[in-house]
Design a protein that fits this description.
72 residues, alpha+beta, two-stranded antiparallel sheet, 1 helix, 2 strands, 8% strand
Length: 72
């Protein structure tokens, strides 16, 4: 299994520890992306589109199904 930077040495940890580390690494990245995309937008608007939100938990914003995007 490729560890994609979630942990330094995946050989010495359990599957649960690996999944928890990968989940935390992903959460940090998603939180940073959310802050970048949805914080104090005053000009030069842009969008990031998704096919769906399967596997994601939306904590704020509105999912626009027709446009396949999360709106701040």
């Amino acid at each position: 299994m490729k560890h994609c930077g979630a942990v330094d040495d995946p050989k010495n940890i359990t599957t649960k520890e690996y999944v928890d580390a990968a989940d935390n690494a992903l959460k940090v990245k998603v939180d940073a992306l959310w802050d970048f995309v949805c914080t104090d937008i005053t000009s030069n608007p842009f969008q990031i589109t998704f096919d769906d939100l399967e596997g994601l938990t939306v904590r704020s914003g509105i999912w626009n199904t027709g446009q396949r995007r999360l709106e701040c």
